Amino acid sequence: MKWSEISVHITQEAVEPVSHILHEVGASGVVIEDPLDLVKERENRFGEIYQLNPDDYPSEGVIVKAYLPINDSFEANVEQIKSAISSLSQYDIDLGKNEVTVSEVDEEEWATAWKKYYHPIQVSETFTIVPTWEEYKAEHEGERIIELDPGMAFGTGTHPTTVMCIRALEKMVKHGDTVIDVGTGSGILSIAAAKLGASSVQAYDLDEVAVESARMNIELNNVQHVVAVNQNNLLNGITGPVDVIVANLLAEIILLFPKEAAQVVKQGGLFITSGIIEAKQQEVIDALEKSGFTIEEVLKIEDWVAIIARNN
Question: What domains are there in the chain, each with its CATH number?
Answer without folding.
Answer: 2-116 (3.30.70.260), 121-311 (3.40.50.150)
